[in-house]
Amino acid sequence: MPRLALVRRLEAAGFRAWPAASIQFDGSWQIRLTAGHPSKRLNSVNPLDPSDRRDIERRVEMAARRFEAYDRQLVFRQSPLAPKELDAYLDELGWERFEETAVMSAPMSELDIDGGMDHLPVRDVGRYVDASIRVHGRDPSLKAGLTEVLSSIKPPSGLFVIEDKGNPVSTALCVHDKELAGIYELATHAEARRKGRGRDVVCAALRWARHRGATKAWLQVETANEAAYGLYQGLGFKEVYRYSFRRSGEGQGAVSD
Questions:
Q1: Percentages helix, strand, coil for the chain, rounded to the nearest 5?
Q2: Where is the N-acetyltransferase domain (predicted)?
C-alpha cells in the first residue's frame, strides 16, 4: 500500500502540471472540466480522501449533471485516495474500469539519464503544439485546446521536440515544480520508434530539470504500454501507485488521455 502522503503530493503536482479550465469541489472530490480539450485528466472526478464516503449516490448524480452541461461523459479517476465505498457503488452500477496507469518516481541521483545529446526546450508554444499533435497522431482541431492548457501551466515547464530531417519525431513536456520534475505527454512518431528517440527526449528533459534544481522525477504511464513502462524501469523509475478510470457503459465515446 503506497504512503498516502506521497500519493497526495504527486496528485497535487499532476493537477498543477495539467490544469483544468474549471475546478470545483464536492467535499474532497475534485471535479475537473475543460471545454477546449477532451483529456480524461482534464475532465474527470478525482476523489482525494478515502474517508469521504458520504452521500455517494447523490453526489454521483450531481457530478453527472455537471458533466452533461459540458457535453462530457462522466468519468471518475480512481487513485488510492478514492474511498472503497465509491468503487463498490460503481461496481453495483456496472461501470467499466479502463486504462490503468502506473505512477512512477525516482530520485534524480538514481536515474540513468546522462549521455546522449542535449536538447534545449523550445520557446514557441505553437511549434511544440504542432509537433505534439503530429507525433501523437491527434486531430489538428485540438490545437487551440492544447495551447490553452500549456499556456495555463504555472510551474516552469520545458517543451521538448526532437526532429529528424526537419520533422518532429519525439516530444515531451517537463514541468519543474519545486523539487519535482514531472514528465508528461511523451510520444514518439510511429515511424521513428525503437530508435531510442523516446529515451533521448526524456533524458534531455530530466537533465534540464535537474540543472534547474529538481531532485526527484516522476511520471505516469499506462500499464498496457509495455514498451514505455520498460523504458522507464530501465532508466531507474519505480512504481509508486496506480490509478484507473471508471465510466458508465452507456454512451461511451472516444476519450483522450
A1: 40, 30, 35
A2: 120-257
